[in-house]
Task: structure prediction
Amino acid sequence: MAKGYWIAHMDVRDPENYKQYVAKAKPAFERFGANFLARGGEVIECEGKPRSRNVIIEFPSLQAARDCYNSPEYQEAIKIRQQYADGELMLVEGV
Result:
C-alpha cells in the first residue's frame, strides 16, 4: 500500500500563538501515525516563491492522511492555524 503525505507551505504571521495550533494538532497526528519528514528548516529557492515554513508529513496511507485531516481533532486545530498562518496544504499519494 502506498503511503500518503501532507505537503504544507505556510507563512506564519504569529509564531508565538502558532504554537497553540501545533499543540492542538498533535493528538490527531499521533492517532493517525504521522511521521514528520521535514518541518521548517532551510529552504533553497529554485523556482517560484517559497513560503517561510514548509512541512512534509508521512502517513501509513493516503486514507490515513485524509482521515487525519478530516478528524475532529484536526478540524479544531485548523481554526487556530488559520488565525496565525497563511498557506497551502495538499494530500499526496506516494509511489
Q: What stands out?
A: The domain at 4-93 is CATH 3.30.70.100 (Alpha-Beta Plaits).
